[in-house]
Design a protein that fits this description.
The protein is an alpha+beta fold. It has helices at about 50-65, 110-115, 120-125, 135-145, 150-155, 165-170, 180-185, 200-205, 245-250, 310-315, 325-330, 370-395, 415-425, 435-450, 455-460, 475-490; strands spanning about 5-10, 15-20, 25-35, 45, 75-80, 85-90, 100, 160, 180, 190, 195-200, 215, 220-225, 235-240, 260-265, 265-275, 285-290, 295-305, 340-345, 360-365, 405, 425-430, 465-470. The chain is built from 16 helices and 23 strands. Bound molecules: adenosine-5'-diphosphate (ADP) and SN-glycerol-3-phosphate. It catalyses: glycerol + ATP = sn-glycerol 3-phosphate + ADP + H(+).
């Protein structure tokens, strides 16, 4: 068996390939950005051929950088931006349309119609999702409606639909395998998370022929082998998972009630809730965490739209700082926020508030307000938003979070991490390997081929870089949260 696992991490803005060794160390990394298309307001597209071109190029680059051969790779894992929708011709392998990206809002009016017709509850019940343009179903339907001849071809079984994982597997196998995994399937709004099958009633509702759909596999299983034309030796593709679920696994949140937050552009919170799905009373998503060894684990998920992006806005939008990292010293230059709060509702508010009419606002400004207050208020706002989602998760699941595992670019900010621990009143654990998405799917692939023996073996590979313990006084935290919620209330419903 090869001495390494190759993880392909196909994200929203770049394709990456990372080679891991048995100790979970990174051996090599290659990355390429690709083009974002914005053909109209609210539309976001990718070129599927460019996704493949960049992903296959970085795969080769990651190997050649270290002089590795295909035979050195025990298995490949694939993790990906989720929900993004690709429809292609089975015969020619050509996409019918550019990929419609998860951020794309073109089907929002259709979702509103479905809501008005009273379908939201059925969808929620079967898929665990909130009826929204975010998920794949309405995007597939849009392609069938808008691309001439697409519907007839789909009904004749000539077209294939897939999320990005399926598309990559199709390409890696030379068009031999059309397959996805349960985590990606659970984001399509067509998959019944209880029966683990494509749902006929939903397919009928969205008017999508079943013949287009991929087979659904476990997240840790040999689903295919690469074809001989891509790499000299055939390599098993043995792990597949959506990127947030892969990160949850990479953070070894394998115990019920364990949670991770990724602090990137937005903040993605996912809590593993065990072998039964938990229905949220707080508008969080119920989704599949993974299926390993036949066992399905479920998760609750909530996203904050503007996380690190608020810091980006300070840097690029209003040029308050030159580098994101300067916000840490600015925040630390004050002993508290001196009454200044920022609600970063720059594109509405996500979970648990769900208000698309909310807008960003600073509160509590005085003649004494400086750059430091605004920087501090911005970092604090990231922490408050994560707090609100995590508390909603705790309420839904009945689990009390004792530790939160964290990753993503903004976790480099030690002020933010300490403040987050204080506000949550729990330990934050930042791992040494912050490539949690890639290592998560590497673990899934490695377990399937016996590269790693069991979960216990990989659990020993997770190491903390730094733990942040809560140390703030409870009255101060309560006061901060009281003012934060007052600020949120005032920012809500602004444009309506
Ligand atoms: N030291 C820092 N302090 C605060 N925010 C930071 C810091 N470094 C990076 N960020 C923020 O983290 C985000 C980038 O994180 P990353 O995980 O690469 O995001 P994504 O995968 O969404 O592109 C940016 O929005 C940036 O503003
Ligand atoms: O590619 P990312 O990291 O922006 O993640 C995208 C998510 O999977 C969307 O649901």
């Amino acid at each position: 068996m090869g001495a390494y696992i190759l993880a392909l991490d196909q994200g929203t803005t770049s394709s990456r390939a990372i080679v891991f060794d048995k100790e979970g160390h990174i051996v090599s990394v290659a990355q390429k950005d690709f083009k974002q298309f914005f053909p109209r307001a609210g539309w976001v597209e990718h070129d599927p051929q460019e996704i493949w071109a960049t992903q296959s190029a970085v795969m080769i680059e990651a190997l050649t950088q270290e002089g590795l051969k295909a035979a050195d790779i025990a298995a490949i894992g694939i993790t990906n931006q989720r929900e993004t929708t690709i429809v292609w011709d089975r015969e020619t392998g050509k996409p019918l349309h550019r990929a419609i990206v998860w951020q794309d809002r073109r089907t929002a009016p259709y979702c509103d119609q479905l809501k008005e017709a009273g379908h939201a509850e059925l969808i929620r019940e079967k898929t665990g999702l909130i009826l929204d343009a975010y998920f794949s179903a309405t995007k597939v339907r849009w392609i069938l409606e808008e691309v001439p001849g697409a519907r007839e071809a789909a009904e004749a079984g000539k077209l294939a639909f897939g999320t990005v994982d399926s598309w990559l597997i199709w390409k890696l196998t030379g068009g031999r395998r059309h397959v996805t995994d349960v985590t990606n399937a659970s984001r399509t709004m067509l998959f019944n998370i209880h029966t683990l099958k494509w749902d006929e009633e939903l397919l009928a509702l969205f008017d999508i022929p079943a013949a287009m759909l991929p087979e659904v596999a476990e997240s840790s299983a040999v689903v295919a082998e690469t074809s001989g034309d891509i790499l000299s030796t055939k390599i098993p593709i043995a792990g597949v998972a959506g990127d947030q679920q892969a990160a949850l696994f990479g953070q070894l949140c394998t115990g019920k009630g364990m949670a991770k937050t990724t602090y990137g552009t937005g903040c993605f919170l996912v809590m593993q809730t065990g072998e039964q799905p938990v229905r949220s009373a707080n508008k969080l998503l119920t989704t599949i965490a993974w299926q390993v060894g036949g066992k399905v684990h479920y998760a609750l998920e909530g996203s904050v739209f503007i996380g690190g992006a608020a810091v980006q806005w300070l840097r690029d939008g209003i040029q308050l700082v030159e580098h994101a990292s300067e916000t840490e010293d600015l925040a630390n230059s004050l002993t508290d926020n001196e009454g200044v709060y920022f609600v970063p509702a720059l594109s509405g508010l996500g979970a648990p508030h769900w208000d698309q009419d909310a807008r960003g606002a600073f509160f509590g400004l005085t003649r004494g307000t400086t750059q430091a207050h605004m920087a501090r208020a911005t970092l604090e706002a990231i922490a408050y938003q994560v707090h609100d989602v995590l508390k909603a998760m705790e309420q839904d699941s009945g689990a009390e979070t004792k530790e939160l595992r964290v990753d993503g670019g903004a976790t480099a900010n030690n002020f933010l991490m300490q403040f987050q621990a204080d506000i949550l009143g729990c330990t934050l654990r930042r791992p040494k390997i912050t490539e949690t998405t890639a290592i998560g799917v590497a673990f899934l692939a490695g377990l399937a081929v016996g590269f790693w023996k069991d979960e216990e073996e990989i659990r020993a590979l997770w190491e903390s870089d730094r733990d942040f313990q809560p140390k703030a006084d409870g009255d101060q935290v309560a006061k901060n949260l009281r003012f934060w919620h007052k600020a949120v209330d005032r920012a809500k419903n602004w444009t309506n």
